[in-house]
Structures are given as structure tokens and as C-alpha cells.
Write the C-alpha cells for this entry.
Amino acid sequence: MVRFKSFIITLLSLAMLLGSLESRAQKTGFRYGFEWGVSSLVMNAYHYNFLTDEGFRVNDTGIESPLISNMGILGHIDLCVADLMTFSLCSGYMGVNANRRIIPVSGRVCFSPKGCYEDGVLAFIDAGIGINSIKSDYVLILSKAGTGYRYALSPSLSLDFLVNAQVAIDHPEVWDKVAQSYVSAVHVRRSDAFYLALGVSIALTF
């Protein structure tokens, strides 16, 4: 008798669990939206090595805190899975430095413990590339992680307030501080830059 009761309880528990998963699965689907944000470049670490016109080799390294503000706008297409996790494809236009404007293309994973369509805290991480908006042969490596809060304004409309940390690996054109001009590409032996920025944004998802 005890075993029978335990069996019934187990079946009921499984039924409730499957019912919950089925309810969440019904909310699986595609969404789309837009994100507007501003960021501040808090660190720029660089290593440049190049030859001057006179034939001297220059090795320039350093870390700066320029506090340069940049804005960006993104469009995204989302796939909500089991009402808890969203996989997104993002692209748009943004700045990463004073003279760097890029077209980012990235994939994002967002986790919403309360559900993709409900009010609640969320966390996300994304990674991708940034194509220079002027010279397409310059490609940056991008990554971002953040958190925020989602307000479900209606069953098909939500508003997210987000904070994030962004990093980028770049190989920019090299500025010769002495000559006050950009170094010719044939004279550049190394050009590495690492950017760290902190940002805030607002996202509207339909």
C-alpha cells in the first residue's frame, strides 16, 4: 500500500512537472526589438610597434582612462526557448573609441528566471565582431555581459533597463605622436588595443 501511494505521488509530481514545462513551451517563439544605449570608455590598453620615416623603430605601450562617451543603437531578433532563455542575433551602429565607429554583429544569450514575458531580473552575455564603418578590412572582436530588469508592458511588449560591461580587441591605425600623423600600414609591425567600457541601455521588445 505504501509503495502504491509513493507510485501515485511520483506520477502526480511528474504530471505537474510536465504540465509546467508544456506551459512554458507554449511561450516559445520569435520576437524582435531595438536597443538604445550609451557607454563610457574607461580603459584603453595599447601596444604599438612601428618604423618611422627615418627608419627608427618605435615601441609604444600604455594604459589610458580616456572616459570617452559613445552611443549605439541595435536591432535584435530573438528566439525565446521554454520561456526562460532567449537566443538573439544583434546588429546596428555604435562607437567604441573617439574615432572608431563600427557595425556590430553578435549573438546574445539572455536568461530570465521569471520568464521571457514576465517582469523580473535578467542577465545576458554576447559575443561577436565589429566591422569598421569606414574601412571594412578592420574587424574588432567584441564581447559584452550585463544584467537588468524587464517590465512586461503587455503580453507582446516589454521594456528592459540594462547595465553592462563591454570589451573589444582592436588593431587600429597607429598615430605617431612625434610626427603628428598616422603611420603607413607598411611600417606598422604591431597594433593591438584593448577597450573596456561601461554602459547603460534601454531595450524595447515586441
